[in-house]
Amino acid sequence: MTADASSVAGQPMSRIIIAAVDGSATSYRAAVWAAVAADLHGCGLHLVTSISLPVGEIPGELLGDTDLELLDRDGQRIVGEAGRAVRAAAGAAVPITTEVIREPIIGYLLDQSRHVRAIAVGSRGLGAIRRGLLGSVADAVTRHAHCPVAVIHATAAADPLSAEKPVLVGIDGSPHSVPAVEFAFQEASVRKVGVTALHAWTDVLGSYVPLIGWEPLRAQENELLSERLAGFGERYPDVPVRRMLMTERPAQALLQESEHAQLVVIGSRGRGGFTGMLLGSTSSTVLHNVETPTVVVRA
After folding, report:
1. Are 123 and 184 contained in the same domain?
2. What is the pLDDT of residues 77-90, one digit of tens each?
């Protein structure tokens, strides 16, 4: 699959979810999550691994034919293992394609993000997907991709009980959170669960509540939350909504509530309670600490 490809195995690019795998258990869990999402949305799944050297050089410029053949064979093993894992989880309903590339994985994923429905990556991995607490690939792709990016941790729950939990979305009151809200309602609808709409509107720590002027402020923020949710109830009548106003730092509020959700959805930037989210302090903290699958949606 190339950057200008219009389809994969007959599926238009907008109907493809890409999962980057590298042989690690975390990346295979990301592939399984992507397969379930693809099945829910009627999409195809494209599994890709890179045999590019960790320094980012293209192997063909440094290695001989024998070395490249060995690397290609290992890449085929990785996508094959990922394919078996997702077949066990999603069955035969999801069209699956695989690819072993020789270019660095980050550039490839960013190119493809202009065309595909979503990308799924593990929070940490091996090989080309390995460095850092969050991981170089997950960090770079969530910061710069043009499509929604799901980051899956090794401990992400995949049991039937977790599948009954709602989708949690962070709402900051800015227009930048609107695509995240839209995504959250779409996911909740296909998963047949509700949405928890969380608006943390102050940077005050803990449970402190101002003694003077609290009710007018709360009413104002409640109205703002209502404005951001306006119309979604009519468009998604099957999705029950739980509204949450919290006097807490947004990242902390999302961390607390994530334990009761199957999916966390956040915007890429914001203002007010979610100030500076290009991939700012709130989203970065959430991605590093939330064990629940988390999707970053850019405006």
Report:
1. no
2. 999 999 999 998 87
